[in-house]
Amino acid sequence: MMGDTGVILLLAGLAIGVTIIQSFLKQAGRDEFAYLVLVVGLTIGLIKIIPVILNLFQQVKTVFNLY
Prior knowledge:
The structure is a single chain. It is built from two helices and no strands. By secondary structure, the chain is an all-alpha fold. The chain has one domain (4-63).
């Protein structure tokens, strides 16, 4: 699994990339592709962040001795 800063940098880079591509597509009149890029970027971001959230919940369960 990536470190905390790795996940943050990955999400920041993904957001910047999606924003740039989406703005270029909107200016070119390809709104449907711009929307598709947004949905794909959001999906990739969620796939990358779900293991981090699951790990957080596991650590909380461990700290409070919840099973």
